[in-house]
Design goal:
Chain A is α+β, with helices and mostly antiparallel strands. Chain A contains 16 helices and 21 strands. Helices cover about 25% and strands about 20% of the residues of chain A. Chain B is mainly α. The chains are: A alpha+beta, B mainly alpha, C mainly alpha.
Chain lengths: ~600, ~325, ~325
């Protein structure tokens, strides 16, 4: 194992992808000693992981107002209509799921009395059902009791197509829900479901009250007055909401966890930009917490020198990657470019793909552009650690790229651009508008120029690029360029659904109005088989191996070139205690436990 | 009013008659104009500065041969030095090279877009203000419509409709350039039109115009020789503001994917990229900011000089 | 005059209908749809997005959608926001106070600076005072507001720590403290906007006064023996006010439209930030409502300007 690989592992520990325990294990396996491994970590500044709450109050309240800042403003407070994290986070102040995901991807019971498992018999061995026991004595903010009926109602509400709930994807595998008693429900699935916690857990699992929403199921869902005035079970109850600006909430005196929350009120202000949000927490201390600080690390580090706050970085499943088009974006077939009936003139040549893979200088992109907020990677699945593949690695090597292209018969022309059979290596490289991405584009373009590949940069404003408009050729799913770069998000701790973006039945095309998830239009039977096998595999170790295999197939065939994986970054005032982001759930997943030093 | 000013006013009183008696603009009139322009000291300084900048951005890259896009992380955010006279940005790219390269585009966009806005605005304002009646009503309501168009969605629509067609017809650089100046100029002429019209409404009833009318001057001549020179003040101001606005607007457009590719360092773009590093790398912002400032300042003085030179009854700056 | 007013008002109706049709077409044809965030999320099935599109009528042909908008508009129904699912008028009314306060004060500040400085500069052209004012004015509009706003934040909030830079519409204090907090948080946005507008308006004012003083009737007035002060007020300023009225009329609608960049920087919950976030989210009903009210104000304020010209200079007549 060479230094770079070791450093990558240490970086992973620092970002939390690789646990300290696992890192030590790997090191011992390599013949080192545990103390030596710990010393290495300490010398590179990896802090001790924090898991338990440091503050246990003896009474509810007394903490005053906590001020939080989201640079995207929440626009509505019904979690099932959330158009983005901002709305899910704002809803999470008031609503709770059955279970939340902690930073390691473990389930923490919220409205559930305990976490189901095969050991306690609540998860069926065949994966066909799961039984949830609900916490008793939980009341909604209006005093009505929370019961199994609410859970059943949420499933009915979400799966009604007329409701058009954004969370419906998490509930589609449920065949029926049996109410066993007033506080026990049994979810029966349509097929074996190893990942049974998709419904009712995490950001899509929040539960809304039946008694206030049952009249507004289906077509009338928009008219529910409580879409803007939430009545939940969470630590804070509703005070005021101005869409696109501010949410205010006050302590819930009947919260089901004793002596929580600590704060008397919370305010979530929206709008502005990420950098000034970071300034307001880290430099001036005007605010206590700011969400998703997408700021260059260099700038963050300078702000942190003031000492009023810090950037908190935690691993999640977001990966910035470059997709290589398998189809020809410049030929129109039956009214569609990048049609599955065409082949890309040169990106289907393995030598060109390998050369491109060698020309992305991930090390510099990490060190110089992203810093702590983007860690160079060769893999598509980066977390949790049990899914991370150890079989792939990355390299930046212009000379080798040149050799590969020479060997494959791509000759430099008088203009320095390589060509073969009259086809020139000219690429259009598209991405959304974002300072970090434009810099990455420039780094890649320069390396490509050294290898005789001419790159034209194109950037599209994000609201067009990520839109689902079938008439617009500039969206990422049309992919009417040779290569493109963006971040895909893995919002759950299980990568199964995330990886369906390389299955052959998900290919985006005119026929499915470019709604398919396979954008690079790559087809591989082995991949399809492994993915399907993983979907039904109930043994977690075998399943992890299958998923690692799908990742390896994507990387070995250079379907995409992963660039950096992007942990979540929040700005937190140094006086705040027990504020732990989870890469797998809302920033407010443990809001009830937040506190602040006087 | 200073004594000089009063003296100037005295001199001016006879001027209109002289202006009226000159039936045709003779060659000597143009020479006279040139001479007057050169006597306007600030105008000559302004013209000189602008010429230096134009020569700089056109010939500069031939002299200063540091590549524009050479990334050198070891030299990032350097303050000015001999090897990098204007310092470097956060990718270690040489700012002088970038300023010179991007300046061509910024200057061209600023000046051409300004000329488009000013010409359309003046033409429409003069027509409506002089003719009045139905023409005034129709054109002003069209102006109202343009004033109320929402910029951002319109821009997105324009990119979406015309970018590929123009790129195909004129090549990427020229196509984008035409699109940008047309968009910026086409969305900024309305205030000029309203200002010119207001001046015309008031001036066309003034004694000296009536005198010209009485002497049988044809309408075009009344407009060009008598009313227009007296309404140029606001137009020149609008023109200088438009240059600055166009240079800045170009950078906004490139953020919408409408402008030049993101790696072309126009001045507005440099300023935008520099803003987040303002507290520890101020040199990055100071140079493009100064360049824009000098451009609009010199264009303003050139405008003043031109107006004064064309208008016989004027206050000369000393 | 009243006949003219009546005719202009009547003409305004078809003009507004025409403008609304153009606006609607632009918004409908502009690329993008409101469900961008759902697109990259693997948990949201494509059918949800298609359902939402169908539910909000985004898949109907353009004339049908426009007809639907016009008929509900006539009934006083402004529609609802796709994003917040709130009625559009509620949303706009929530944002209006902040915008009116900040932009109104900025415009006032701009006029209070620009009119005296511009006039004085014109009376003493190329004097030291004029040169200094000119330099500042040019720095003022050479620097975009995104830049000056940030400069102000760095100086006054971060280094000096005098002013807050995040604007909050609901401040919990009461009495004098409430006013004081509001003034404190408004200083920077008002200054950034006001100074930017003032720098342009000063130049316009100076140019207008210069144009007027040179005209013969001013000299005539002087020759008649009127005092310098009377000449200045009655003849110069009054005539020079014509371009100023034009400019103010051009800026009045923007008080409603908000200042997108400045509101974004200081997080002022005004119409401008609502407009930009709605445009970026392709929330067409909101964008349509704001731009339509805005165009109404454009029409009205330009009409007011035309009437004011007649009052400032009685010789102006409309045929």
């Amino acid at each position: 194992m060479e230094e770079r690989a070791l450093r990558t592992l240490i970086d992973q520990v620092r970002a939390g992808t690789l646990s300290r325990r696992r890192f030590v294990k790997v090191m011992v396996g390599l013949g080192l000693t545990a103390p030596m491994a710990a010393q290495m970590l300490a010398s590179t500044g990896v802090a001790q992981a924090q898991t338990k709450w440091t503050f246990s109050p003896t009474k509810r309240g007394g903490g005053g107002l906590v001020k939080t800042l989201w640079w995207q403003a929440p626009t509505l407070l019904n979690p099932h209509f959330a158009t983005g994290t901002k709305d899910q986070d704002a809803s999470r102040i008031f609503y709770e799921p059955l279970g939340a995901y902690d930073p390691d991807g473990n389930i923490v019971p919220m409205l559930a009395a305990e976490v189901p498992s095969q050991q306690n018999g609540q998860v069926a061995k065949d994966g066909m059902s799961v039984t949830w026991r609900l916490r008793k004595n939980v009341v909604w903010h209006d005093g009505k009791p929370f019961t199994a009926d609410d859970v059943v109602f949420n499933w009915e509400y979400v799966t009604d197509p007329a409701t058009a709930a954004v969370s419906s994807g998490n509930y589609r595998d449920i065949a029926r829900i049996d109410k066993l008693d007033s506080h026990t429900v049994k979810l029966v699935f349509k097929s074996p479901t190893p990942f049974w916690s998709s419904p009712f857990c995490g950001p899509y699992g929040m539960i809304i009250p039946k008694h206030l929403f049952q009249a507004y199921k289906g077509d009338k869902s928009r008219e529910a007055p409580n879409n803007l005035k939430p009545v939940g079970t969470g630590p804070f109850r509703f005070a005021d909401f101005k869409p696109g600006d501010i949410v205010r909430a006050e302590l819930n005196p009947n919260y089901h966890v004793p002596n929580r929350p600590f704060f008397d009120a919370i305010e979530m202000k929206g709008g502005g930009d990420a950098i000034s949000a970071a300034r307001a927490v880290i430099q001036t201390g005007e605010f206590d917490y700011a969400w998703n600080i997408q700021v260059e690390d260099e700038i963050l580090k300078r702000m942190e020198q003031g000492g009023k706050g810090r950037a908190d970085i935690v691993a999640g499943g977001n990966i910035e990657h470059i997709q290589l088009n398998n189809t020809d974006p410049w030929t129109e077939v039956e009214g569609e470019r990048s049609s599955i009936k065409t082949r890309h003139p040169f990106l289907t040549d393995p030598a060109v793909r390998q050369a491109l893979n060698l020309l992305v200088d991930r090390g510099s992109v990490q060190e110089q552009i992203y810093g702590r907020t983007g860690i160079a990677t060769a893999n598509f699945v980066n977390a949790p650690s049990r899914f991370v593949s150890k079989n792939t690695r990355w390299e930046f090597n212009v000379d080798r790229a040149n050799q590969l292209l020479d060997g494959a018969g791509w000759k430099r022309g008088s203009d320095g651009i390589r060509a073969k059979d009259g086809k020139k290596l000219r690429l259009v490289y598209q991405t959304s508008i974002n300072a970090l991405r434009q810099k990455t584009q420039q780094v890649v373009k320069q390396a490509c120029a050294k290898a005789g590949i001419d790159v034209e940069l194109k950037s599209v404003t994000a609201n067009v690029y990520f839109s689902s408009d079938p008439a617009n050729p500039d969206t990422y799913s049309h992919f009417y360029t040779d290569i493109q770069m963006y971040t895909t998000t893995m919002v759950e701790p299980d990568p199964q659904r995330f990886l369906d973006q390389f299955t052959s039945w998900e290919i985006a095309s005119k026929e499915n109005k470019w709604q398919g998830r396979n954008i690079s239009r790559w087809r591989n039977e082995e991949y399809d088989r492994a993915w399907k096998a993983a979907e039904a595999e109930m043994d977690p170790v075998k399943r992890a191996a299958l998923l690692v295999k799908t990742n390896d197939l994507v990387i070995q065939n250079i379907v995409v070139v992963p660039v950096v994986f992007r942990p979540r970054v929040a700005a937190i005032s140094s006086r705040m205690r027990d504020v732990a982001q989870s890469g797998w759930d809302s920033d407010f997943w443990a809001l009830a436990y937040w506190s602040k030093q006087p | 009013m200073t004594p000089e000013g009063m003296a100037g006013a005295e001199r001016r009183r006879v001027a209109p008659v002289a202006g009226l008696s000159a039936a045709e603009p003779s060659p000597s009139l143009w020479r006279e104009t040139g001479r007057r322009f050169l006597r306007h000291r600030l105008a000559t300084v302004g013209a000189a500065v602008l010429v230096v900048m134009v020569v700089g951005v056109v010939a500069g890259p031939l002299v200063w041969r540091v590549p524009v896009n050479e990334i050198d992380f070891k030299a990032k955010l350097r303050t000015p030095s001999w090897s990098h006279p204007l310092g470097t940005d956060d990718l270690g790219q040489d700012l002088l090279a970038r300023m010179l390269y991007g300046g061509r585009i910024s200057l061209a966009v600023g000046i051409v877009a300004m000329l488009i806005a000013i010409s359309i605005g003046t033409a429409i304002g003069a027509t409506t203000g002089y003719v009045g009646g139905t023409v005034d009503h129709t054109l002003m309501r069209i102006t109202d419509m343009f004033l109320s168009l929402p910029g951002l969605p319109l821009l997105l629509l324009i990119v979406y409709l015309f970018r590929d067609a123009l790129r195909k017809a004129l090549g990427p650089e020229a196509g984008v350039f035409i699109l940008i100046v047309a968009v910026i100029g086409g969305l900024r002429w309305m205030p000029v039109a309203r200002l010119v019209r207001a001046q015309f409404l008031s001036l066309r009833e003034k004694e000296f115009v009536e005198a010209a009318r009485g002497l049988g001057a044809p309408p075009l001549r009344q407009v060009v020789r008598h009313i227009l020179p007296n309404s140029m003040g606001p137009v020149i101001v609008a023109g200088t503001i438009d240059v600055a606005a166009a240079i800045i607007a170009e950078s906004t457009l490139s953020f919408l994917g409408l402008g030049f590719p993101p790696d072309i360092p126009t001045w507005g773009r440099l300023l935008f990229d520099a803003k987040d590093n303002l507290d520890f790398a101020p040199h990055w912002a100071i140079f493009p900011g100064t360049a824009i400032f000098l451009t609009v300042l010199s264009i303003n003085y050139i405008g003043d000089g031109l107006r004064d030179a064309l208008d016989p009854r004027k206050v000369l700056a000393r | 005059m009243s006949k003219y007013l009546l005719r202009r008002t009547l003409i305004s109706i078809p003009v507004l209908v025409g403008i609304s049709a153009v606006l609607f077409t632009i918004l409908a044809l502009a690329p993008g749809d409101p469900f961008e965030e759902l697109a990259t999320n693997p948990n949201v099935p494509a059918e949800v997005r298609l359902n939402l599109r169908a539910k909000f009528g985004l898949d109907d042909p353009l004339p049908v959608r426009y007809a639907r908008w016009v008929t509900s508009m006539v009934r006083g129904d402004w529609g609802f926001s796709f994003v917040s699912r709130v009625d559009v008028d509620t949303l706009i009314l929530q944002r209006l106070p902040a915008t009116l306060v900040v932009l109104g004060s900025a415009l006032l500040l701009a006029i209070l600076i620009a009119v005296p400085i511009g006039t004085y500069s014109a009376l003493r052209p190329y004097s030291i005072f004029d040169q200094v004012a000119t330099t500042f004015a040019f720095i003022g509009f050479s620097l975009p507001t995104f830049f000056t706003g940030l400069l102000f934040i760095l100086i006054f909030s971060i280094y000096l720590d005098w002013l807050p830079f995040i604007y909050r519409a609901d401040i919990s204090a009461s009495g004098w403290r409430w006013y004081w907090e509001h003034v404190r948080q408004s200083i920077m946005p008002v200054a950034v906007l006001g100074l930017f507008q003032a720098s342009a308006t000063t130049r316009f004012m100076r140019a207008a006064v210069l144009d007027v003083i040179r005209l013969d009737y001013v000299n005539t007035a002087r020759a008649k023996g009127l005092s310098e002060r009377t000449t200045l007020v009655k003849h110069v300023v009054r005539n020079a006010l014509i371009p100023v009225v034009t400019l103010v009329a051009l800026q009045i609608p923007t008080i409603f439209g908000g200042a997108i960049v400045t509101e974004q920087i200081f997080r002022v919950p005004g119409i401008g930030s609502l407009l930009i976030s709605s445009i970026l989210a392709n929330d067409t009903p909101v964008v349509m409502a704001i731009t339509f009210v805005y165009s109404g104000l454009v029409v009205v304020s330009n009409l007011a300007a035309d009437l004011l010209y007649g009052w400032l200079d009685p010789r102006i007549s409309y045929r």
